[in-house]
């Protein structure tokens, strides 16, 4: 859905050359290779994240035979746990951290994170409740390890540069790196995992892929941690606020509040769409391979979509970009509601178009989130980076969990049974879910952003930053 620093006071900082940040101060531009080095960490994190988003629920239901409602409940519990750990780490970032802790969180946490990820895909031993406890425990352990490493990484994006243009550049590169990882996960999980483990199917396919992804991710994150440099070193640092004070500052930050409401609605919509893909292709279109290709194509289109959205954001600003992307998403869902796509190619085209549209929302969110930190400091006089990123992660995880439970409940109540032909009622429920939930949530997302204080910012909503 980031050293771990105390709140920062930028008074008296006079960077070296003349670009302006959102606070009206000059901001030194950071070299592109340093920005790219930080953004490369998203490749590693998305090997984990996209696997969990695209395959883990399907692994639970169709590879190891857990009921869809039970699997969704496990996913919700792990998502909420992830969010709580993320928020706790964010609060710790604001109170106890320093720049060196950012680096060591990645260097020291990379290998344990990879091991925990592989454990999440380990075929569970035993039967009954013991088996479910093993699955839940593995998922919870992975989510905790992910939060402990990811939140410090996310917080780096607010310290890599004072300049909003650099931060937007990092957001775009992060999405491109994440896209490359997502394509690898989507199209490579089954064939690569099967080749590594010497099997054609079953749980060991997913374990083989997880072991490979963990190895790659660990090496990358160690490199990112070793290369990071804090651009804000030497800035005056007031005493860290208490958690109560930090939360009070966030509560007065209207830019953050409207952004996270819009984000949660968007996340519910995109999660329902994304997690429905494999089920839709397997049971409605009877073509599992086409579903895997659809996932890969959805991720690949981001390579083109991200630069396009970046260019548009430079012209109209990230806030206006949000409304454009919402309009595209709503139009796509309405088209799907009117046309019953019964061929795999047509469904793939629809999903690729929806992915291209939702990429705009993800890019706008990651571009605007650091700016809400600046806005909150102007309002409250307190800069709380870790709390903002931690709370955003908590709410993102809650939204993902709720969307997954909604999917599980709808399919379960409609009579879904894994690996058998589904009834017409189940298929109708599956299609209705893909229409009604995303449509309502995309509209809610746009409504929330209509109240954002950032709409009045010339840098973010009225034309965008200029290079």
Give a quick set of tags describing it.
2 strands, mainly alpha, disordered C terminus, 467 residues
* Main beta sheet strand tally, sense and closure: 2 strands, antiparallel
* Widest sheet, order of strands: 1-2
Oligomeric state: single chain
Rg over CA atoms, rounded to whole Å, is 21 Å
- Beta fraction: under 5%
Q: What general form does the structure show?
A: globular
Supply the number of helical segments: 15
Structural class: mainly alpha
Provide structural commentary.
The longest helix has about 35 residues, at about 345-380. The chain is an all-alpha fold. It is built from 15 helices and 2 strands. It is globular. Residues about 1-25 and about 460-465 have low confidence and may be disordered. Helices cover about 75% and strands about 0% of the residues. The chain has a two-stranded antiparallel sheet with strand order 1-2. Helix 11 (about 300-315) packs parallel to helix 13 (about 345-380) and helix 14 (about 385-415) runs antiparallel to helix 15 (about 425-450). It has helices spanning about 30-40, 40-65, 70-95, 100-120, 130-155, 165-195, 205-225, 245-250, 255-285, 290-300, 300-315, 320-340, 345-380, 385-415, 425-450; strands at about 20, 25.
